[in-house]
Design brief:
7-stranded antiparallel sheet; 3 helices; mainly beta
Length: 265
């Protein structure tokens, strides 16, 4: 199954912007945007984001399968310090890590399907046999547990700096979070067409109409659309040495999006 767009009108998406100081989102066409973050020092968070869930509670995020999403994108450099990407997720860290803004949400386990581009400082895989940074097509599927069931994990967060505790929590997380990730090689400074198809029991990614991954792991609905660029990193490697923070950017960094299309299948 290679995701296709049938030519029907794109489903309307009401985007909101989420910006830190000096960041910009500029609409350059009917379905086109430029997201830019300024240069700045290490330790200062910089984010430019488009999403359609900011003011919604997580249970009222707008999208469920079957759904197809496609867009063309290019970036300012082959390796942006931090992360950028686009796709759908449940914004699981909005309360504890400051993503998303708007409606207050307690943390949740992740559900996501997206193209994710991460600099080498990141290690964003719970499984040791999957790629953890670079150019990634990734899926996370987790049960929708009530917030009270996650409370023990929240109390353990202050101890994440202790590697044996972090290793134990990482193994615990693998029992609940199913993951599939593939890395791919492409020149992200050139225009490419990215597509994903989300069904209840299957997910497919394609780059320039060539399938790069198909999986029976599918995230649980509902999800929201997110397109972003930031200078943040998170590393949770097998040795348990947790790392996170904001990276120095010597030059402004940007991502351009055009021909965005979202269509219920």
């Amino acid at each position: 199954m290679i995701p296709r767009i049938t030519g029907r009108p794109s489903q309307s998406v009401q985007f909101s912007t989420n910006l830190t100081r000096g960041a910009q989102v500029t609409q350059t066409g009917p379905d086109s945007w430029r997201l830019e973050i300024p240069a700045g020092p290490q330790g200062s968070y910089r984010l430019a984001q488009l999403d359609d869930y900011t003011q919604r509670s997580r249970e009222h995020f707008p999208w469920e399968p079957p759904l197809s999403m496609a867009l063309s994108a290019r970036a300012s450099t082959t390796q942006i310090q931090g992360t950028w990407g686009f796709g759908l997720w449940n914004d699981p860290f909005s309360f504890s890590m400051g993503f998303g803004g708007g409606a207050r949400r307690l943390p949740a386990l992740p559900n996501a399907i997206w193209f994710f581009f991460a600099s080498p400082h990141n290690h964003l895989s719970l499984r040791d046999d999957l790629p953890s940074n670079g150019n990634l097509a990734a899926i996370f599927q987790s049960p929708r547990l009530p917030a009270y069931m996650l409370s023990p994990g929240l109390f353990a967060l202050p101890f994440m700096a202790i590697p044996p505790v972090a290793r134990l929590l990482r193994r615990w997380a693998r029992r609940f979070v199913r993951q599939e990730t593939v890395s791919f090689i492409t020149d992200v400074t050139q225009w490419h067409r990215y597509r994903l198809a989300w069904e209840a029991d299957r997910v497919c990614f394609a780059l320039d109409d060539i399938r790069i991954m198909e999986s029976i792991i599918s995230p649980h609905a509902p999800l929201g659309v997110v397109i972003w660029i930031d200078n943040q990193y998170l590393a949770w490697p097998p040795n348990g040495r947790l790392g996170y923070g904001n990276l120095e950017t010597l030059q402004p960094a940007w991502v351009e999006i055009k021909d965005f299309h979202l269509e219920p299948a």
